[in-house]
Structure formats: structure tokens, C-alpha cells
Write a structure and sequence with these properties.
single chain, 6-stranded mixed sheet, 4-stranded antiparallel sheet
Length: 249
């Protein structure tokens, strides 16, 4: 990876659904190895931002660059190549119910690598061990708690060793202790692998733990950006109010 290029850039990105503009001329640069948390009220474009970064949603105008490559005009095959460098932890883990936890983690390796079966199983097992699920390979997703599903989803997102990880509400629906464990896993990942983290969250304690920088979206625009302490002192009442909240929305 070219270290002189930002991991992700949004350049004047706008996106509407019908008459509703969800992203309105959003520009954002995220340097490699940094952790960013995107904050804001529900319906302000946070999850759409993540889906735009990974190419699940194409912007109406503007550019999306991944490690210097503009993905907005890429074909499905070209997008698939880029997505191998981006892990995505979905809000509800999005595990396949019909296969075991271990095979969920192994799925990207089976689809995108030429590794032998034994090597794939070994890597999947190692990833599960990293997230505290080393004994759960053969269990079915229905046998896991919500926190365990999030851990398994994180292991799957890391299967291809992506330099960029996107996480949509990783603390949603979890008790404070389990949410803290997920936060700790993300922080360790960043420290050990220099992974670029882009996290959407309502959970301010989590954001303070994870983020080098916070980005606050409101009505499709970035209205505040900076370190947590800077947003604490924001002259925008909505931002200050949000920063004093304790729960996940």
C-alpha cells in the first residue's frame, strides 16, 4: 500500500434517495492507520457514508477514493478487487445462518483465495481465537449471543487482512461490558496492525475509546470534525449535547 496516499477520501460526495438528500457535498480525508468515528442523529447519512466508501451505494456526484483509486466508475469486477482491501462489520453481524461460525469466517478465504482447505480452517480458527471465540468454530450462529455474533462478524471482516475496516454500530444492542470488549478489540487491531478504522456509532463512550478523530454529520453535512476534546468545546449546541450522552442510540 502506498503510505503517502490517504486510505479513504470523499470528494464533494452527494447522494439523494428520491427527494431526500442524505449526503450533501461531503468531503473527508482519512489517513492510513487512523481511526475515525462518524457521529450524528439517526437518518443523517452515517451508514450511507460507509456503504458509499465500500461501493455498495454510488454517489450522485463527487468521488470516492480508496488508497488513491477513484471507485465511483468501477465495474462490479473492479469493485470486487478493491473490496478485498476493506473489511465490513455489519450492525447485526450478518452471519450466514446455514453454516457454522468457523465457516462464516472462512467464507471470504474460500471465495477470494486459492488456499488449501486445511490452511483456510487454520486461519479461520486463528481469527476466532483472536476475538475470543477459539472454541466456537463448529457452533451455529443461532447458538451465539449478540456479543459473540459481533466478535464472529469482526473475525470474518478481518479474514483477508484488510488495511481498512468499516464498522456500522459495533456497540448496538450490547450491554456496556460487551460493548467495551468490542471497543478493546478494535483498538488492539489498530495498534497491532495499523488498520484504518472507520466506525459509525451513537455510543459516545465507545467513540472516545476508539477514535483519533470524530466527524459529526447533520442533515447530510459535516458540521464538526476533530479530536473528542474539540467537539466537547464545540460552539454548536447539538454537538455539545451529543458529546455528553452516555448510551447508544
Amino acid at each position: 500500500m502506498a503510505t503517502d496516499r490517504p486510505a479513504v477520501e470523499l470528494r464533494a460526495v452527494s447522494k439523494s434517495f428520491g427527494t431526500r438528500k442524505v449526503l450533501d457535498d461531503v468531503s473527508l480525508t482519512i489517513e492510513a492507520g487512523r481511526s475515525i468515528c462518524i457521529l450524528g442523529r439517526s437518518g443523517t447519512g452515517k451508514s450511507v457514508s460507509l456503504k458509499t466508501i465500500i461501493g455498495l451505494i454510488r454517489p450522485d456526484t463527487g468521488g470516492v477514493l480508496i488508497e488513491g483509486e477513484d471507485i465511483t466508475g468501477l465495474s462490479s469486477r473492479e469493485l470486487s478487487r478493491v473490496r478485498k482491501r476493506i473489511g465490513f462489520l455489519f450492525q447485526y453481524a450478518a452471519l450466514f445462518d446455514s453454516i457454522s461460525v468457523g465457516e462464516n469466517v472462512a467464507f471470504p478465504l474460500r471465495r477470494h483465495s486459492d488456499l488449501a482447505n486445511d490452511e483456510i480452517r487454520s486461519r479461520a480458527s486463528h481469527l476466532l481465537t483472536q476475538v475470543g471465540l477459539g472454541r466456537e468454530y463448529d457452533k451455529m450462529p443461532s447458538d451465539l449471543s449478540g456479543g459473540m455474533k459481533k466478535r464472529a462478524g469482526l473475525a470474518r471482516a478481518l479474514a483477508l487482512q484488510p488495511p481498512i475496516l468499516l464498522a456500522d454500530e459495533p456497540s448496538a444492542g450490547l450491554d456496556p461490558v460487551t460493548a467495551g470488549e468490542i471497543d478493546a478489540l478494535l483498538v488492539t487491531l489498530k495498534q497491532q496492525s495499523s488498520t484504518t478504522l472507520i466506525v459509525v456509532t451513537h455510543n459516545i463512550p465507545s467513540a472516545r475509546t476508539i477514535a483519533d478523530e470524530l466527524v459529526f454529520l447533520h442533515e447530510g453535512r459535516i458540521i464538526a470534525q476533530g479530536a473528542p476534546a474539540a467537539l466537547d468545546r464545540s460552539d454548536i449546541p447539538l454537538v455539545r449535547q451529543f458529546m455528553t450522552s452516555e448510551g447508544a442510540g
